[in-house]
Write a structure and sequence with these properties.
- The protein folds into two domains: 13-237, Rossmann fold; 257-491, Rossmann fold (3-Layer(aba) Sandwich), CATH 3.40.50.
- Helix content is 51%, strand content 12%.
- The protein contains 19 helices and ten strands.
- The protein has helices at 13-37, 53-60, 89-92, 108-118, 123-142, 156-168, 178-185, 187-200, 216-237, 268-292, 308-316, 334-337, 343-346, 368-371, 377-397, 410-422, 432-438, 441-455, 470-491; strands at residues 41-47, 69-73, 101-105, 146-153, 208-212, 296-302, 324-328, 355-359, 400-407, 462-466.
- The strands form two sheets. It has a five-stranded parallel sheet, sandwiched between helices. Strands 7-8-6-9-10 form a five-stranded parallel sheet, sandwiched between helices.
- Helix 3 (89-92) links the parallel strand 2 and strand 3.
- It is elongated, with a radius of gyration of 26 Å.
- The two termini are 42 Å apart.
Length: 493
């Protein structure tokens, strides 16, 4: 892309000045349009050192009410804490709310290309990261985001001229670092790496816009024109359905819920013996996980009153409280609802060596949100593939992902609801919504069956816990967790 870039003829100074006024006014008006349409806009500025990204960004945002934008400056090198999270974690947390702009002074490109140039990223890692970036950008646009990517391009000669000018003034020399000087000295090598990255991440839904950055005002005009055009197009297409992608993940066969044998049980003696044994094993494994820096995500879903809470307690009882957290997931808060539905789960991921247990999960998208009409049919149909992609991102990072569906039958649920209703100290556990959901039992069963069939992947399969006998379900969950963590510890030196 960079090597074949053909500059557009630059208008004269007066024409640029006049056009800038028009585009600045358009952006000011578009800001209100995106607010009304609840369109979240990501604007990513990448480019050569001293190409003028920061100064152009400063001019562009003058046309926008400061209450409706934020600027994120992403360092190429993640912090030590960020290195203990997935590659995309720190970027995904920065995505904007609906109806607002987020301007990125560099984003995920710089971390990848710098890694290639300094040799810290090999070809396999590069390919994985590019794939993750393409998937993430597609997911964002599929979920209503406008993602605009600009690369500020200048020649080696122009860059050298700008660096020399900055270095010559004691008040600006601080703006030049050794990476800028290295980049100019190795311009052609950098050009090859940047060009490959741009080609590998240039997609029709999220294209790259190459900005001729030799002249600051001309560069600003190009950005404004592309940005306004992008907003116009996005608002027109905002309500269109998105194509559903074919599943390409290997799946593990799952039984239908009606086929699950719920008669399995344990005696009190068997239960106590196995509980002591498995909790002892899990306690020892937690230390190994921390030493080997293996992150663990345990996801619980199930029918109301199925026994998720008691199941979780038997696992956490064996863990060091400094090394785990339980995340109870309720209805999204307004700031969560205003972002991609996976954002609040990215926000809660463990760091390496730690365990996060989710009491309800991202699968609400294809259950309660589907059945209660909180998202469109296109949204929840698309979500199966998006959640498989999310979990693949986690397992590629090195996480152990264990997903439990806790199952009971209709009659058992009724008995437990009635018990809660009639027992004062348990009444807080039962709500009118629980009773309303019972009326949709069959609809939920259909939705759950579809979910289990489409998202039980080889890398993150579902495990059904037969929980009419809670003791049996607890021991089965502990055994699965112990087995999976043992396997992970053996596979990582």
């Amino acid at each position: 892309m960079l090597k074949n870039f053909v500059k557009t003829a630059q208008p004269d100074k007066e024409a640029v000045k006049a056009a800038l006024k028009v585009e600045q006014a358009k952006l000011a008006a578009n800001q209100m349009r995106i607010k009304e349409a609840k369109l979240p806009v990501m604007v990513i500025f990448e480019g050569w050192g001293s190409a003028g990204k920061g100064s152009v960004m400063g001019e562009v945002i003058k046309s926008i009410d400061p209450r409706f934008f934020r600027v994120a400056t992403m360092d190429a090198e993640p912090t030590e804490e960020e290195k203990r999270k997935p590659f995309l974690y720190r970027y995904f947390l920065e995505i904007p709310e609906a109806g607002k702009f987020k301007f990125f002074d560099t984003c995920w490109m710089e971390e990848v290309t710098d890694g290639v140039l300094d040799g810290s990223i090999d070809e396999e890692t590069y390919a994985k990261r590019v794939k993750s970036i393409n998937i993430t950008e597609r997911q964002l646009t599929d979920n209503g985001y406008l993602v605009m990517k600009f690369f500020f391009h200048i020649s080696k000669k122009e860059q050298k001229k700008r660096l020399d000018l900055l270095l010559a003034d004691k008040n600006t020399k601080w703006r030049v670092d050794k990476e800028d000087l290295w980049e100019n000295e190795h311009y052609n090598e950098c050009l090859d790496v940047y060009n490959k990255y741009l080609e590998d991440t240039n997609r029709s839904n999220v294209p790259w816009y190459i900005i001729d950055a030799k002249n600051k005002k001309w560069a600003e005009l190009q950005v404004l024109q592309f940005l306004n055009l992008g907003i116009d197009t996005a608002i027109k297409n905002h309500s269109l359905a998105v194509p559903i992608l074919q599943n390409t993940f290997p799946l593990k066969p799952m039984p239908l819920l009606d086929e699950v044998d719920l008669s399995k049980s344990l005696t009190d003696e068997e239960y106590k013996k196995e509980l002591d044994r498995l909790q002892g094993e899990l306690r020892a494994l937690h230390n190994k996980l921390y030493r080997k820096k293996i992150p663990v995500i345990i996801a619980y879903e199930g029918m109301d009153a199925a026994g998720k809470g008691g199941n979780i307690k038997r696992i956490t009882a064996a863990l060091d409280p400094r090394g785990y957290v339980v995340e109870p997931i309720a209805s999204p808060e307004p700031h969560e609802k205003a972002r991609h539905y996976l954002w609040r789960f990215w926000n809660r991921l463990p760091k390496t060596g730690h365990i996060t247990i989710f009491d309800r999960t991202w699968y609400g998208r294809v259950m309660v949100e589907r059945l209660e009409g909180f998202c469109s049919e296109n949204d929840w149909q698309r979500a199966y593939n998006e959640m498989n992609e999310f979990e693949r991102e986690l397992t590629d990072w090195g996480a152990v992902v264990i997903k439990f569906w806790v199952q009971i039958d209709n009659q058992t649920q009724l008995e437990r609801f009635t018990d809660r209703q009639n027992t004062p100290e348990k009444q807080w556990k039962i709500t009118d919504e629980d009773w309303r959901n019972r009326e949709k039992w069959d609809l939920y069963v259909d939705a759950i069956n579809e979910m289990l069939q489409k998202t039980s992947t080889v890398n993150a399969p579902w495990y059904i816990l037969e929980s009419v006998d809670k003791k049996y379900a607890r021991i089965k969950a502990l055994q699965i967790v112990v087995d999976e963590l043992n396997k992970a510890c053996k596979n990582k030196k």
